[in-house]
Amino acid sequence: MEAVCIKSLPPNLDYKTEKYVLTNNKRVGVFHRLLQLAILCYVIGWVFIIKRGYQESDCDPHSSVITKIKGSSVTKDFQELQGRLWDEADFVKPSQGENVLFLVTNFISTPGQVLGVCPESPSISDGRCGENLDCTLGEHVVNGNGVKTGRCIFLNSTHSTCQIYGWCPVEKESLVRKIPLKEAENFTIFIKITVSFRKLNFVRTNVQKTLDDTYFKSCRYDPVSSPYCPVFTIKDITTNAKHSFEELSLLGGVVRIDIEWNCNLDYEETHCIPQYTFELQDINNNFRTATYFWDEDRLECRDLLKLYGIRFEISVTGEARRFGIVPTAVNLGAGCALLGSATVLCDLVLLYLDSKANFYWKCKYEEAKPPKSRKALQSTSINETSTLQEQ
Q1: CA distance 92 to 72
Q2: How far apart (Å, rounded) are the C-alpha atoms in residues 391 and 376?
Q3: In Å, how far from its chain's centre is CA 311?
Q4: pTM above 0.85?
């Protein structure tokens, strides 16, 4: 009898459909349930509860900052500025109202400087000399105050410096010895912030709305009793930065003020309260400024001030969140896909790692062939009959 060969379709044109096979493999069954439990805990606990995956968020707040410093002090220890009054116009550099401000706490005053020749300061190493040859004519003093004239001047038995052309007399570093503006520790800083989360169309400010004009003159910030009073004393800020005012006021420093907004808009807006943190960034901060004028002899003069103080850098960050249907649907879909991956992983264990992998393979995959039609069966029967007759 002739063998009848059925030619199958090319493999790339086959269609595979799912076939569910119930297996009595307890190890894989327990592993499957543990995987499903772990995925459910991850999706519900981590994604939706901890990370709040059901909310849309805005992590790019737009903010405006307004600062004001109030206070005054009188210098008493410096002969050049005897009895001078310092207020916020003198203390704050640059002008208040920016994200960065400089509070003066100490200074070196060199009043009445005029252009001329005078000895360089002994504190400048490049200005020291032993003879005239050490002072090259026209050479600039490195980190100094002018240009060398070619002469070496003996100040006393131990110090001699080059004569320079510049603003005379030169500044004396030795004057930094006390804190003439110690009252600055009791000054107050008012920090008004308006933050806008444009993606969620939400605007918030850290200032309490009140009709009392004297409220901000008497209140002080407290995270519990007065969280909407953004008035801080300088001493409180330096203390929260883990340094004393006395340490920073002598030679200055840099303090960073971080204001963070974390707002869950699914609750009342009263829960959207800024958090303030203070951190010391650097020490020894100063710069110079001068006031120019003409004296009675029509000579150009200037009063030089080297100002030491605390530089405050204000940074605003935050995030606002609100329920959104899109992130909820996306995270639910991702969770369902993860649950399906548990089945795929267990199938891989059964088909490739189990000791009865060949048996499970045959049970899971089966080639389905369509039954023959009536005409095909009749022609096959006639052919078989004719073959038998010939025999």
Answers
A1: 11
A2: 23
A3: 19
A4: no
Residue type, 22: L
Q: Measuring CA to CA, how many Å separate 280 from each of 252, 255, 293, 313?
A: 11, 4, 38, 10
Which helix (H) or strand (E) segment holds residue 146: the answer is strand 146-154
**Structure token pair of residue 288:** 């110079």
Q: Give the Cα separation of 361 and 352 in Å (integer).
A: 9
Per-residue pLDDT of the chain in tens (391 residues, 90 and over written 9): 333 344 444 556 677 777 677 777 788 888 888 998 999 999 999 999 998 888 898 888 888 887 777 776 666 544 444 556 666 666 666 655 568 888 888 888 888 999 999 999 888 889 999 999 999 998 999 888 899 999 999 988 888 999 999 999 998 876 555 666 777 888 888 988 899 999 888 888 888 888 787 888 888 998 888 888 899 999 999 999 998 888 888 888 999 999 999 988 888 777 788 999 999 999 888 888 888 999 888 889 999 888 888 999 999 999 999 999 999 999 999 998 888 888 888 888 888 877 777 777 777 776 666 666 555 555 655 555 555 455 5
CA distances to 179, 182, 237, 283, 349 from 247, in Å? 10, 11, 13, 9, 67
Alpha carbon distance 172, 306 (integer Å): 10
Q: What is the DSSP letter of 121?
A: P
How far is 195 from 200, CA to CA, in rounded Å? 12
Is 2.60.490.10 the CATH number for 62-111+178-322? yes
Residue of 353, 367, 310 whose CA lies nearest to 28: 353
Q: Where are the domains positioned within the chain?
A: 25-54+324-355, 62-111+178-322, 121-169
Q: Among 331, 302, 228, which Cα is nearest to 270's?
A: 228
User: What one-character DSSP code corresponds to residue 48?
Assistant: I
The CATH topology of domain 25-54+324-355 is: Helix Hairpins (1.10.287)
